[in-house]
Here is the input.
Amino acid sequence: MEKSRICFNCGRYIGAKNVCPYCGEEQPKPIGIEFLKWVSLLVAIGGVIFLFISAKTSSAPFFKVENLKPTMNFAKISMKGIVESSPYYNEEKGGYLSFWLNDGTGSIKVRAFRDLAKEIIHKNLYPSIGDSVYVTGTLYAREDFILTINSINELKVKIPEPFNIKLEDIGDTLQGKRIITQGTVYSVKEYKDKSVGVRIGSNKVFITVYIPFYYKDKEKILALEKGTIIKVKGAISLYKDKPEIIPHYVSDIEIIGKEEIKTKESHKTINGEILSGYTFKKGLKIKVKTDKGIEEVVLWKSTLNKYYERESQKILTGSVIEFEVYEKEYRGKKEYNVKRLKIISYPEKPLSISDAITRNFGEFIKTKGTVKEIKEFKAGTRVIVYDESGELSIWIWKDLWGELKGIFGEGSEILVAGELKEHKGKPELIPRVKGDIAVLK
Amino acid sequence: MNIFVPLFISLIGTLTGVIFSWIPALHIYNILALFVFVQVETAILPNHLIPYFFAGCVTGYAFTGTLPAIYFSTNDDTTLFYLLPAQKFLMYGRGHEAVILSLFGSLGTAFLIFITAIIMPYFLPLLKDLLTPHVSWILASIGAFMLMSEWPRTTDRPKSPFGRLKEAWGSLFIGILVFFLSGFLGYIVMRGGVMDPKTSFQNLMPLFLGLFAIPWLIINMISNPVLPEQKIEDKVYTTYPRILRGIFAGTLGGGFAAFFPVITGGIGAFLAGHATAQRGDDIFIIGQGANRFLYYVGGFLLFFVPFLHLRRGGAAWMLNIFYSPSSYSEYFLMISIVLISAFLSFYLTLKISKVIAKNINKIPYKTLSFIIIVFIIILTFLITSYKGLTVLFVSTGIGLLPPLFGTRRLNCLGALIVPLTVEMSSFSGAVSKILGF
Here is the structure.
């Protein structure tokens, strides 16, 4: 066994120390330790400088998607490809940007976080569908590969040259191609997420120009008037299997003139007895039996709430109503939207619960009962009502419950109108608007 | 799936963990890295069974990995604090007792995980939502606290005021230098692309071996300690309340380290030590055992917690290459498997400890340290090629500064704190622009 380092004064073990931690006696400095001390310092500082220069001067190796391997997790690599879809950007939680890149051998998700994502957006450096992108970043190997951009210098976007095409010649085969076309503005709509859709048309062919919410100067688009003729430069993307144009910048939309658009709204009256209906988020589709057969009308909840709030309990299966409607095209089909309505007659007496539950699903009915139980869920609230003939479950969606909460409680007697539906094999009544529920006691 | 299959695989994993973890300076993540290579090329194990193998390995390591820290003074980032009290035990011939104390801490924490498993899927996602927006400033604060809590190691022997000032600031300055040098090196390794991209899942391996393992081995070679004969009876001199206090302190530190990104077991222990101010070497060693188990195994289990799926620690990151958990049943199965592995590892570690304690006098420290250094160099070269060796060389230079200049080794954890604070802050893009990568 070799001799260990001990204090020459007190004889205790001192390891690599130069001063004995027990008696404080300075030790003769062994040349090895002294040498090691300064060599370590030199290696530490010099080595870090060397690696820094090496990192700064070397470029990340280029890889194709097909060559990526799980053992490359955390690798800094470069990739090149075409952007497959419009970038997704979310400003919440500090900022997040992602898009899919296809290099011909496969696709990979590319993303950026926080300040970098914001910088890319604010400096208009984001790619658009069809753009050619050269990107360097850190590879993350999960069940799929993801490339994370770390610096704004690591993203290089090349926008391809557009070609001219008539609006009516645009089809889904052009997906990802960059085009220039021209059309007349028919409508401008701002969506919930603050993105904007401009509907343009030419020779009765229409297409939407989509402006994502994060584009700068979006207000200029919102200010576009109906009839404005615009020239649009952008890439073709498919939304619900239909082509739409996504410009790269707002400045890709150029105003070149104006024309007057005459719109024909054809009005008519539908008179008849309600057979059944279907409630969706924003309205009701109602089947009406007329002299000419069965017609379907759309009654928007906004119209119902605005003009006929107190009348909603009268819109029931068996009610005779005169609907003033206008014709509108929706997804290529004509539909009749209710503008005004006049109730001629309706079933005044509410059904007993035992009668209500024997009616056909899809009918609009009215019943009354005492509230037995109220149970709140994430999506809505279930209210159980009963009368002497039985009990019935009423499902109130979250939005509507927000308006109704506190109006009644357990033990209240309520009058409920709504659509009778099936839920797990049992009947359930779904109120359509706030006016469908009235508290009796 | 037959429940005995994952159980069998986890037992193989436990044995693998135990067999390799008593070898000084060998980290189980290095073994798992080799496994990943083999798995990618040959698919030796079906992907859905890999988690159970990993769980066994990590649990085995959490127990048996204390042996080299206590007997051979080789440490990783979680066993930094073992060294002083453990060496004290070792010098008094009580190394085996230190091992038992540490195992108590680990086993106690395994029970704690088992007991609290049912509430974790509800509690942890809430905690994550609460903490996530604050990660960057918390990390920066921890870095600042680490530097501010350094103290001047003075003897007041120099005769001139300048001499005393130089002595007081010498170690403090080196401490700060180590923190920022290792931080900068960590940033270069993670972002600079200096490693081979084909094996970059082991980017941090040479960095950590250089910062922690090799410097200790070199110092061991220089100082060449002579150890007294060790007692090998299964007795510990402590009390149940002190065991509970140790587990409490360790759970606090290990839990924080396991849950919070970047915070390693070493930092967790450092913070918990300050927070709970426990006194006594026995409590300290028990706490370190608990801390270590929770950091490695608890951190790994976070990946399986429903609605959370946090990847913490190298094992979870490597596992995620092949597999993502998707159900409650996997989570509870994993908890049970960890508990069984923990019992097995406890028993096996005790046995190995006795063998080492019995033969510690016969082990030529200098030769052993040299062999391990050569082994580390070969392993690093095999996994990360010459580029990894360069990082190993530079990080060894940094890792040697604390023992040679008398400052804290903990400052080497700047290698993680600095780059990840930058990455999670809102100025990562700006830093990247300045540095050019």
